[in-house]
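Support request, please re-run this one:
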Amino acid sequence: MKIKSLVLTVVLASSLSIASLAQEQVNEIDISLNHIAVYVNDLTKSTDFYKNILKLKEIPEPFKDGRHTWFTLGRAGQLHLIQGAGKNIKRDKNDHLCFSVKSIDEFIGRLNQNDLNYTNWPGTEKAPTVRVDGVKQIYFQDPDGHWIEINDDASLKH
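Re-run finished. Output below.
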């Protein structure tokens, strides 16, 4: 009886694994995000910002030319900072990077500790936007004026 039970368990586990693999193949897409490149004026200042404000983890970059910094974005890919952009480029808020955090209030605390201003979508300072789906979001700019959204989208929490 123990052998029959063991065989049945192995067969069921194998069937579930095959079904799971088949489902992954059905959901597989032919394209995935590899990296996002952000063109910056001052690589040192921008690297410091993304490391200390967003807490992104720096990873090795192959060029070793002093013009690149790479960060991991986990399964989403990588963020590459590339030195060479001009100064004082006007940026539109519609063109932004968005990151989700577990606690937007804790993140706002980090911005406040670092004397960084943030707004809601319409531009009201120190006020988050609450979307119709309940997600709370704020917007601020990196040292080059690139807009960044931080939100507490539960479906994206790690």
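The chain has three domains: 1-30, 32-88, 90-158. The first strand starts at residue 35 and ends at 40.
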